[in-house]
């Protein structure tokens, strides 16, 4: 879901420790060198959790999306379209009771047999088990149960009719199906070492901090793939990944849109450079639960002191656009022409009214080139309003780790979440239950919850879009959110391959093709 | 009275004589010139800088050197020359403060270990060796996130890791000096150990220590740049040669000027202080002085 979800629950910490130990022992089996059949992809970090109940980082998402089946999924291409995956058919005519039939013959790795409707039942209902402490339980609030009607057939019963459950959950990462038998044998959950997957690739070797190798699944009987193995190389900084690409060490990476002009003017040898528009919202969160920021006047002052167009110009060389909310342009619920504008005088007045002159606050962010650039501009902006901003760049794991102490100490946080074509997906997390988990801003509003409820049962896109607009306006008016942009990104790949990617540039491993 | 009346002309003569000998050594002369330039540029950074080093001008980002910006601009459009000049202030401040504190604590602890109560010697030496066992960078990366990046953290790390070096040398020198006849005579006369240390041993050992310290200044300058490069050191909006180098590395495909702008002052400072330190040693160490 988000760019990382490590350390959400105390139980998760213990799992993390075990994960590192197990992963180091189980997967460290030696180097796999690059060859003509090897596809090398730069990723921002090592994976953390490959259980769909705990996933969080971009890499978790890449791997879960590519290793587990879902009933249907977003298809690679330039448009957001949904295609069937493990399902042979899905009947959405009744948005409260979703009927599905699985394709027969999809086999789990590790000898765990065939994918059946019982696996679907187990995979979805387990999120409701309080003992599991699923990090994405919010996405399953509407689920009542899954009725198994045959080996391959079943009905997903929701408490209310909903379109968003399909678009935001079932076809998205959290809707991944796992092997019931394998999970139960593993104690009900797993971390970075799933024992059963499906699809053309399966996990091979893993050297934390170095690389993760996916190799061909010998049990796969579906469409063949062009690459024998995929090597994921963790390179946290996009500029560093770009240098690695130029040095011939990787075949596919995303880079900063701020580098687009340079890459087009002077591309690395054999490179294809493309600009892609993601739907990932980049936003500044302002924690109203923090004493320094509990006064809405202070939060509004921070909003008004920031020069977001300059941030975007610096980080994307003008290829980005100021966001008006969590919903990207062209999607249901996008707010037109309502971006925040800078008003330094008003910001100073608000600070004076709040008696908060000379305020010092801290900004946490993932320490990469783009975020660091944005943070420094925000620091200069706030300094003009009389606010001292202390910059606290952190590595991905540290940034996304949230225990009770850090949750209470959150102030400002610049972060990007992985977007979903349906804005409901992102906005469902800003509820009271999520404070201390994903609602770092501490936002809580009964009116917002009412709108959220209304949105998820509103089937008509136009009507739902209007609700989303109101919700985004409420979030912004709370002073706790500064929408920065839906980040554009540069796709950099060898001219010997054609990447299989979603419209926002996320890789779909099996869809990568060699250029004949 | 008679001492103050007769000694100053002799001291001025010795200083002038030493300075002339220093300048007659080409390495020493180069060192003096480079260090003087660096110190002056750092002291007068506020006057010499054409722009506010923190002033952001995004439309002018990553420009090559021009008449407006002699060393170009960085990714935020900030003037690199101004940032390099202010970076010199940081570098010299860190180096001088760290050196002073490291020498100060090292001398005190070394003297206690070498001439204090016997039971204190072993624990102090053990502490020295324990700290020295940690590589500076590893220690910095471990400690940095705990105390937070910043000037104080950098200085703290450099001081903690350098004190044992000076302490060990001072301890050895003090032990050697304490066996001299005049020390034994002073002790026999009933002079306190503290007074003997302060009045008679310290003046005899401090000269070589200060020369060693001068040779460590470039090490501290490079360490500050390195720690800032790694994100443990100076934080924006402050400027540092290490931060300029870090930016230069990140944007090397767009422009190489940032790397040059960060490297040249660093190299200049390192060479200048190294030349000066070595020349000082050659000039004032009686064992190395030419013709002696």
Automatic annotation (TrEMBL), chain A:
Pfam families attached to this UniProt entry: SBP_bac_5 (PF00496)
Entry keyword set: Signal
Solute-binding protein family domain span: 83-433
Keyword Signal: yes
Any single Gene Ontology cellular-component annotation: ATP-binding cassette (ABC) transporter complex
Cited SUPFAM superfamilies: Periplasmic binding protein-like II
Domain of life: Bacteria
One GO MF term attached to the UniProt entry: peptide transmembrane transporter activity
GO biological process: peptide transport
Compartment(s): Periplasm
Family: Belongs to the bacterial solute-binding protein 5 family.
PANTHER family per UniProt: D,D-DIPEPTIDE-BINDING PERIPLASMIC PROTEIN DDPA-RELATED (PTHR30290:SF38), PERIPLASMIC BINDING COMPONENT OF ABC TRANSPORTER (PTHR30290)
Name of the protein this chain belongs to: Putative D,D-dipeptide-binding periplasmic protein DdpA
From TrEMBL, chain B:
Transmembrane spans: 29-51, 90-113, 133-161, 201-223, 256-280
Location in the cell: Cell membrane
CC annotations in GO: plasma membrane
InterPro entries: BP-dependent_transpt_permease (IPR050366), MetI-like (IPR000515), MetI-like_sf (IPR035906), OppC_N (IPR025966)
Entry superkingdom: Bacteria
UniProt KW Transmembrane helix keyword: yes
GO BP: any one term: protein transport
Keywords: Cell membrane, Membrane, Peptide transport, Protein transport, Transmembrane, Transmembrane helix, Transport
Record bears the keyword ATP-binding: no
Topology relative to the membrane: Multi-pass membrane protein
Ranges for domain ABC transmembrane type-1: 88-277
Family: Belongs to the binding-protein-dependent transport system permease family.
PANTHER family in the record: D,D-DIPEPTIDE TRANSPORT SYSTEM PERMEASE PROTEIN DDPC-RELATED, OLIGOPEPTIDE TRANSPORT SYSTEM PERMEASE PROTEIN APPC
Name by which UniProt lists this protein: Glutathione transport system permease protein GsiD
Organism per entry: Roseovarius aestuarii
């Amino acid at each position: 879901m988000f760019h990382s979800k490590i350390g959400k629950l105390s139980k998760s910490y213990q799992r993390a420790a075990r994960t590192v130990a197990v992963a180091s022992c189980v997967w460290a089996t030696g180097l796999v060198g690059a060859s003509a059949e090897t596809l090398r992809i730069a990723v921002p970090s090592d994976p953390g959790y490959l259980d769909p109940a705990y996933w969080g980082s971009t890499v978790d998402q890449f791997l879960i999306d590519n290793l587990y089946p879902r009933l249907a999924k977003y298809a690679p291409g330039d448009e957001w379209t949904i295609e069937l995956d493990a399902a042979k058919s899905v009947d959405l005519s009744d948005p409260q009771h979703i009927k599905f039939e699985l394709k027969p013959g999809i086999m789990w790795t590790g000898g765990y047999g065939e994918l059946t409707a019982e696996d679907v039942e187990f995979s979805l209902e387990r999120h409701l088990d309080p003992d599991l402490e699923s990090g994405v339980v919010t996405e399953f609030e509407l689920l009542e149960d899954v009725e198994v009607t045959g080996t391959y057939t079943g009905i997903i019963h929701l408490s209310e009719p909903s379109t968003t459950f399909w678009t935001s959950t079932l076809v998205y990462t959290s809707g991944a199906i796992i092997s019931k038998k394998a999970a139960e044998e593993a104690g009900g959950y797993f971390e970075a070492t799933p024992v059963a997957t499906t699809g053309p690739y399966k996990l091979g070797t893993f050297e934390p901090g170095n690389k993760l190798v996916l190799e061909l699944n010998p049990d796969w009987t579906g469409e063949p793939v062009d690459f024998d193995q995929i090597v994921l190389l963790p390179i946290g900084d996009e500029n560093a990944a770009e240098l690695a690409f130029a040095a011939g060490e990787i075949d596919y990476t995303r880079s900063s849109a701020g580098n687009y002009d340079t890459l087009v003017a002077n591309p690395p040898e054999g490179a294809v450079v493309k600009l892609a528009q993601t739907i990932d919202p980049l936003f500044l969160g302002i924690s109203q639960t923090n004493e320094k920021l509990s006064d809405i006047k202070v939060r509004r002052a921070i909003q008004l002191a920031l020069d977001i167009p300059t941030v975007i110009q610096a980080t994307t060389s003008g290829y980005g656009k100021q966001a008006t909310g969590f919903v990207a342009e062209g999607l249901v619920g996008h707010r037109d022409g309502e971006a925040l504008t800078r008003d330094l005088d008003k910001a100073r007045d608000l600070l004076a009214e709040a008696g908060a002159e000379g305020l010092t606050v801290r900004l946490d962010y993932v320490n990469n080139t783009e975020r660091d650039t944005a943070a420094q501009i925000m620091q200069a902006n706030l300094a003009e309003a009389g606010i001292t901003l202390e910059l606290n760049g952190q590595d991905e794991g540290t940034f996304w780790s949230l225990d009770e102490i850090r949750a209470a100490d959150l102030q400002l946080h610049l972060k990007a979440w992985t977007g979903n074509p349906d804005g409901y997906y992102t906005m469902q997390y800003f509820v009271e239950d999520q404070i201390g988990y994903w609602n770092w801003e501490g936002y809580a509003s009964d009116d917002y919850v009412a709108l959220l409820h209304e949105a998820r049962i509103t089937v008509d896109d136009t009507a739902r879009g209007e609700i989303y607009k109101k919700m985004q306006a409420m979030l912004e008016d709370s002073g706790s959110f500064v929408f920065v942009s839906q980040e554009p990104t540069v796709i950099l790949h060898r001219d010997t391959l054609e990447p299989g990617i979603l419209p926002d540039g996320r890789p779909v491993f099996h869809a990568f093709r060699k250029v004949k | 009275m008679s001492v103050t009346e007769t000694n100053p002309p002799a001291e001025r003569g010795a200083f002038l004589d030493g300075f002339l000998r220093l300048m007659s050594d080409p390495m020493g002369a180069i060192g003096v010139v480079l260090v003087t330039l660096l110190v002056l540029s750092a002291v007068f950074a506020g006057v010499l800088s054409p722009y506010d080093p923190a002033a952001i001008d995004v439309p002018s980002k990553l420009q090559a050197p021009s008449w407006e910006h002699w060393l170009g601009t960085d990714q935020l459009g900030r003037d690199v020359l101004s940032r390099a000049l202010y970076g010199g202030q940081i570098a010299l401040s860190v180096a001088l403060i760290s050196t002073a504190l490291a020498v100060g604590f090292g001398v005190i602890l070394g003297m206690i270990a070498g001439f204090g109560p016997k039971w204190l010697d072993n624990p102090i030496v053990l502490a020295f060796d324990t700290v020295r066992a940690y590589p500076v960078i590893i220690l910095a990366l471990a400690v940095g996130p705990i105390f937070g990046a910043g000037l104080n953290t950098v200085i703290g790390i450099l001081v903690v890791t350098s004190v044992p070096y000076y302490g060990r040398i001072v301890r050895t020198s003090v032990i050697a000096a304490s066996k001299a006849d005049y020390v034994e005579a002073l002790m026999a006369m009933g002079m306190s150990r503290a007074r003997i240390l302060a009045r008679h041993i310290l003046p005899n050992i401090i000269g070589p220590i200060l020369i060693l310290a001068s040779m460590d200044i470039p090490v501290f300058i490079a360490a500050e740049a390195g720690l800032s490069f790694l994100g443990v050191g100076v934080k924006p909006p402050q400027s540092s040669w290490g931060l300029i180098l870090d930016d230069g590395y990140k944007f090397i495909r767009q422009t190489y000027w940032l790397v040059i702008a960060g490297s040249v002052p660093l190299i200049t400072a390192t060479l200048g202080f190294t030349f000066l330190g070595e020349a000082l040693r050659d000039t004032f160490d009686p064992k190395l002085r030419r013709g002696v």
